[in-house]
Amino acid sequence: MFKYAMPVPAIRIKDGQMYRSTKSFAWVDYPMGSASHEIKLLEEAVTNNQTVEIIGPAFTINGTVTLISLGNGAKFRVVRSDS
Q1: What is the pLDDT of residues 26-80, one digit of tens each?
Q2: Would strands 10-12 and 51-55 be described as parallel, antiparallel, or unpaired?
């Protein structure tokens, strides 16, 4: 029997700033007061402890999302998942 991996939800980043700190970590930042729908999608991924594919302009990363800050803008950390 073949085992198929379930596709992970994809979140395309257009409004946030996305950058990589290492091969295994990436960050997505939004300025204070941003009302981007991307923030809601990322918050849902945090709440559901869900692996997602984050598609940015420079790179794509699959992983779990952690909310770091909402006080001075929104900041999310993406930890790469090697499944």
Answers
A1: 999 999 988 899 999 999 999 999 999 999 998 999 999 999 887 788 899 999 8
A2: parallel
Q: What is the DSSP letter of 48?
A: T
**pLDDT tens digits for range 20-38:** 878 888 999 999 988 899 9
- Of 33, 31, 54, the closest CA to residue 42 belongs to 54
CA 9, CA 11: separation in Å to the nearest integer? 7
Tokens read off for 46: 């945090």
The SS3 assignment for 37 reads: helix
Tokens 């559901």 correspond to what residue?
A: 48
What are 9's two structure tokens?
Answer: 């939800």
Alpha helices (H) in the chain, listed in sequence order: 37-47
